[in-house]
Structures are given as C-alpha cells and as structure tokens.
C-alpha cells in the first residue's frame, strides 16, 4: 500500500512524535507513506468564507500532487485533515471555487477533487482493518485504560468529513481495542478543547479542558489519546485532573514494537 | 442602500447563509461551548442579520469567542450554519484597514515553549487578514 503523505507544519516541530511514530508504524504495517514534495502549511483552520480562494491553494497543491501520482492522500494531524478534506470537497462540488482556484494554479489538467483524502486512522480502519492490525500487535497494551479524545476537527461537519458518527464515534475506541488496551467512553470526548482561543484567552480553553479531563478521569481513564497537536497542547494546560495525553501513533508504535527504535528521532 | 444593509448583504454573501431558514429552536446555543462568554448568543446572530443591526453584531465580543468547533453547524436541523455566519461577521471586521484582532507585536508575550505552530497559524487566519 503506497500513499501520498501530508505531515503538516506542527509535525515538523512540536509534534514530531505524532509524525515519527506514524512513519515507524506504517513501515511495520507494510504501508508506504511518500511525503509530498514541497508541501505548504494548510493554514490550520478551514477558511469559512465562501469567497476565500487564495487561502485554500496550499491544500489544492497537495491534493493535486497526490492526484498526479495517482495516490490517495494521507493526513496525520486532525487540523490538516479537516482543512484538506473540506477544500477537496469545494474543488469537487463548488464550481465557483474550482474555477477560480484553477485559474491561480495553471495546471496542465484542472484539479476537480479527484484525490481521496484519508486520515491515518481511516487507513487503519478501512484499508488495513482493525482485525488485521490486531494480528500484527507484538506488545498488546493489556490493562491500559485509555480515553479517546476526538475533539471537533475529525468529526464535524460530519456530512463533509464522513469520518464517523459525530455524536457517538467509535473509531478510536476500536483502535484502542485492536492494540490490546481498554477504551474508556466518557461524555466529553467530542467536546471542543477551545482550539485557537488558547492563544489570547488561555483561561477559556483551560476551563474547557478541565471539564474534559475531569469527565475522562471520572469514567476511569488513565490516559487520553488524540490526533491533534493543538488538542494535546490545550489538554496539557489543564490544571485540574491531569491525565497524560499521547498521540495515537505513539500507542500504535508501542503496540507494534517499533517505538524504542525511533524514540531518539523524537527528541531531536 | 444604507451601510448597515450593505453589510448585512455582505455577511450573507460571505457566509452563504440564508438566515430566514432559522426556526429559533436554540440547538446552536445549547451546543455552544462558548455560550456563557457570548453577549449575543448563537441563535440570536441570525436575527441581527435579518434586522440589519450589524453595528451591534460586529461590536459584539461573541465574534472572538466562537471556536469554529462546528457543534452548531452539525446540530442545526435547518442547516443554517450559525458558525459560518459569525465567521462572516468576523471577516467583515478584519478585512477593514487596521482592524486585525491579533497583532504581530502581541505574539512574543503569548508564546510558551510548548506552543504548537498550528495555534499561531490558526489564530492568524481567524483573527486577521
């Protein structure tokens, strides 16, 4: 299985662990992640204005690069996934945006949403299969009680993201089960962490994350797992209940027995 | 056309939202994680646009409390997309000269060693042009 891979800005800096453990795990599963050349930052949030074009072009370039290689495009960060998937929907279904974006791009063949965008969790669920993944686990994380923290960006708007049931998702819980641990379902797993509000109004996101942490702890979670560097940052700023928060790729690498060999790369 | 009428039209155009579809069920406000922080509540945004009271809307602190978490968009039974409406009002403000909500000079004191780049690029995109 060979995919185009879009890491995103934070996976090169503060979230190296999300990237490094993903690559090691993918290799162990026989998945080839081919990084897109000269990818540009997606911008972090999807530009909501119907007249926004230039702010979407970095995503269009990545999508078109994957198209030219005839590969599906894999994302790792929730925010990149959200932005690129929604821009792809615009390119496929919104004629005005498609026309104007292509006018900027000057491609040999116009881009019209041909690429399929998959989050790595979707690759694990839909392409590898959680049953197959389970067979490849060398160090099952037996006895660990892990709460999935979905946040917003992977789930909503569900009509566009088509990731999972937005009110009662199961994909990360199924993933946790596949690597031998015990998922803890708690009410706040799809509530917002505060997102970008934590830049200027740190107390607001802190309050939201304290509710999330308390909810998870109350239902018996020992740790939380997420796919989003901003969720992880905000959750770690919570001052009430304090559960460790790790990327899902770190858990995966541990279960597949490849964590130790790449650990040093994360520290670099 | 009065300037407020023009701005109301602009907000509808940027957002692509038809506020007349709203049936005031209040699900958006019930879902909003920033509800307590907002002076104008999510279900009220539509009325301000319909009544062309844009002055109140663009000066509302609610513009800067919306997290774009899409809970309101997801749960709206009429597909009104309140989150898109509030973003359009935000755009009407920051697209004007010297109306950015976040200034580059503010950044250094907001940083800490763990802060991810994602947070900076996201805030830049929502809060300024």
Write structural notes for this entry:
Chain A has 13 helices and 8 strands. Chain A is of the alpha/beta class and 268 residues long. Chain A folds into 2 domains: 2-120, Glutathione S-transferase Yfyf (Class Pi), Chain A, domain 2; 132-259, Rossmann fold. In chain A, strand 1 (2-6), helix 1 (16-28) and strand 2 (32-35) form a beta-alpha-beta unit. The longest helix of chain A is centred in the last third of the chain and has 17 residues, at 202-218. Chain B has one domain: Alpha-helical ferredoxin (Fumarate Reductase Iron-sulfur Protein, Chain B, domain 2), CATH 1.10.1060. In chain B, helix 1 crosses helix 6 (82-94) and helix 3 (42-50) crosses helix 6. Classes of the chains: A alpha/beta (268), B mainly alpha (129). Chains A and B meet through helix 9 and helix 11 of A and helix 1, helix 5, helix 6 and helix 8 of B.
- Name given to the CATH homologous superfamily of chain B: Alpha-helical ferredoxin
- Report the CATH topology name of chain B: Fumarate Reductase Iron-sulfur Protein, Chain B, domain 2
Number of domains of chain B: 1
Question: How far is the N terminus from the C terminus of chain B?
Answer: 26 Å
CATH architecture of chain B: Orthogonal Bundle
CATH topology of the largest domain in chain A: Rossmann fold
Q: What fraction strand of chain B?
A: under 5%
């Amino acid at each position: 299985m060979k995919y185009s891979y879009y890491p995103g800005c934070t996976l090169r800096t503060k979230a190296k662990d999300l990237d490094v453990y993903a690559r090691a795990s993918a290799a162990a599963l026989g998945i080839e992640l081919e990084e897109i050349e000269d990818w540009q930052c997606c911008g972090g949030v999807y530009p909501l204005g119907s007249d926004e074009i230039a702010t979407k072009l970095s995503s269009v370039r990545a999508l078109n690069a994957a198209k030219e290689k005839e590969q599906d495009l894999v994302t790792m960060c929730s925010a990149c996934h959200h932005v690129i998937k929604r821009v792809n929907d615009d390119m496929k279904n919104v004629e005005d945006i498609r026309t104007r974006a292509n006018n900027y791009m000057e491609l040999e063949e116009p881009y019209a949403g041909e690429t399929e965008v998959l989050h790595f969790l979707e690759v694990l669920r839909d392409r590898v299969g959680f049953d197959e993944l389970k067979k490849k686990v060398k160090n099952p994380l037996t006895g660990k009680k892990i709460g999935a923290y979905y946040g917003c960006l992977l789930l909503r708007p569900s009509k566009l993201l088509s990731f999972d049931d937005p009110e009662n998702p199961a994909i990360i819980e199924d993933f946790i089960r596949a690597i031998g641990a015990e998922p803890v379902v708690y009410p706040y797993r799809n509530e917002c962490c505060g997102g970008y509000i934590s830049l200027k109004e740190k107390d607001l996101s802190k309050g939201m994350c304290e509710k999330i942490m308390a909810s998870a702890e109350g239902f018996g979670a020992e740790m939380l797992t997420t796919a989003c560097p901003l969720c992880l940052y905000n959750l770690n700023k919570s001052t009430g209940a304090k559960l460790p928060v790790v990327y899902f790729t770190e858990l995966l690498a541990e279960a597949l027995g490849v964590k130790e060999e790449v650990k040093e790369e994360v520290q670099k | 056309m009065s300037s407020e009428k023009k701005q109301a039209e602009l907000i509808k155009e940027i957002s692509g939202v038809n506020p007349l579809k709203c049936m005031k069920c209040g699900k958006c406000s019930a879902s909003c994680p920033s509800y307590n922080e907002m002076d104008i509540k999510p279900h009220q945004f539509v009325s301000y646009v319909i009544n062309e009271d844009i002055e109140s809307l663009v000066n509302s602190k609610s513009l800067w409390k919306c997290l774009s978490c899409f809970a309101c968009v997801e749960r709206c039974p009429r597909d009104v997309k309140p989150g898109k409406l509030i973003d359009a009002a935000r755009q009407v403000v920051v697209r004007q000269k010297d109306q950015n909500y976040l200034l580059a000079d503010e950044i250094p004191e907001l940083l800490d060693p763990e802060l991810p780049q994602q947070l900076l690029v996201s805030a830049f995109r929502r809060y300024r042009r």
